[in-house]
Amino acid sequence: MAVMVDPDKSSLLRAAPRLMQILRVLVRHKFLGALRGKSHWPSPKEVRETFEELGLTFLKFGQVLAMRRDLLPDAYIDELELLQDQLPALGIGAVRAKVEDELGAPLTKLFASFGETPLGSATIAQVHEATLHDGRHVAVKVQRPDLETMIATDVAALAYLISLMEKLFPRLIALDLPVLVREFANSLNRETDFSREAHSIVLFRTALADIHDLWIPDVVAEYSTGNVLTMEFSDGERVDIYAKLHPEAMPRSINTLVRLTLQTIFEEGLFHADPHPGNVLILPDGRLSLLDFGMTGELDEPMRESLTLLLEAVVKGDARGASEAYLEMAPQGSEKVNRAALLVDIKSVLHDIHRSDLADVSIGDAFDSLLRAGSRHGVHNPGEFFLLTRTFVILESMIRQLDPDHNYMGSFREEISRLTAQHFSLERIKDKTGKLAREMERLMNDAPGDTRRVLRRIAEGNLGRLQAPAVEALGGRISRNLERLTGAIISAALMVAGGLMIAAPKDAGWHHNVGQGMIVAGISWAVIIAVNTMRRDRGRR
Predict the structure, then answer these.
(1) At what angle are helices 426-460 and 468-503 packed, to 10 degrees?
(2) CB 256, CB 283: distance < 8 Å
(3) Which of 395, 423, 451 is the last residue before a domain boundary?
(4) Catalytic site positions
(5) pTM of structure
C-alpha cells in the first residue's frame, strides 16, 4: 500500500506531539530569532542541520526547498543542496519481514540468494542484490516500514506550522507556501508508490527503445508490489567513476544522456527528474544504464508546446515571445501578473544569455532565472516546471563533471535539430492533418445542432421574448458562420503545413513538392469557400 497524504485532511490531534518536538528543535537552532527579521535568521548551516535532525520528511522537504531559488537566498539554497538522501540501513530482519509480508512467502522460497548488506540506503527505501530460483540476477528495492504514519504526521505538522506563520506574517501569504506543501505531499505520494515507479519504467523503456546505447532494467512484475520493487540487475559502474578511467568514452555517453532527456520531454512528455551520477551507470559493453524512476515528471501536450515556444524564444532572444510562452505554462492567476515588469526582467535574462559564450549557457540557469522573475511579479509557477528546471541543473552539472570541455550546447542543438526534422516527417504531418480533419468534421457536424439547442434554451429562459423563427434564423446564421470558419481553418492548416514542409531540411527534396501541393490545395479550398459564400448571400438577397 503506497503512502497517501493529504495535508488538508491531516489530524492536528495526531500531529500535536510531533509538532511540539519540531518546535523544540526549531528553538534549539535559533529559528525563533527569525521572528525579529532577516538579520536574525539562523545561519545556512544551522538550517541544514535542523532538517537533518528532524528526519526523513524534513530531509525531503529541504531538498524540495533547494529547488526554490525564488524563495530563499542563494547561501541557504547551496547549503540545502548538501542534504544527503540517506538514512541508516535497515537490519536484515526488518527487510525480511517487509518482503515476506508484501510478497506472501518466506524469503528463501522467493529467492535463491538475498544479500544481507544493502547496495544503497536512502530515505524512502534500500536496495538489495538477489538471485531468483530461475537464475535471474535482480535488485530488490524495499520500502522502509511505517512510512505512511511518519510522513502523514510530519506533513500535518508542517502544514500547521506554515498556517501559523502566515497568521503571524501576512506577507508570507503571497509565497503560496500551502501550495508548496501540497505539491510536496503529492511528490511523496508518487515517490513512495512503487507500482507507479514500475509503470514509469515500462513507459521509459518503450519511449527509449530506439536508443541502442541505452539499457533500462526491466521490472520483474511477479515479485513487485506497491512497497517492494524487483528489477533486473544492472551490472554497471557509476558514470563519474567510469569517466576517470575512460575519459575518451564520455562524448558518446553525454550525447546519449542529452538525447534521452530531450526525446522523452518533447516526444513523450516524460522526464527522469533525478539524473545524478548514482542513477547513471556504464555497462561493461559501454552502454549507458538509467536507474531509479521514483522521481519523474510529466508534461501534458499544451505545456510541451509552450515549453517548445519558450526554448525557441530563449534561443532567438525574443523576450516578448518568451514571456508569453512562459505565462502559458502557468495560466492560473496570470491576470494578476505585472506583465510589463516581467517583460523587463526577461529581457535582462535573455540579454545576459546572449552576451555569454554559447558554450557556457545553461538551460537550467535560464529556466531558474525565469522562475525567479515570475515569482517576483505574481506568476504561480507550475510544480512540473520547477522539477524540469532541477532536472536540467542536475544534468548540466553532471555533464561538466564528466567532461568539462564537452560542448553541451552543441549536443543540445544537434538533438533539437533531429527532433525538428522528425517533427516535419511526412508521417507526423499526415497524422496531425488527419487529426485536425477529424476534429473539424466533428465540429461541422455538431455545431449546427448544438447552436440551435443552446439558442432554444436561451429563448425559453430569460430571453423568452424572442420568437422561435427569429431564434432559428439566428441559429442558421451562426451555423453558416461556423462552417465558413471551419473551412477557413482547414485552408489555413493546409497552407501552414505546406509552408512547414517547404521549410524542412533540404536533404529530403520530396518535402518541397508535397508542401507546394498542400499550399495549392489550401488556396483552392479558400477560393471555393469564398465562391460558395457569395452564392449563398446572393441567393438570400
Answers:
(1) 170
(2) no
(3) 423
(4) 274
(5) 0.70
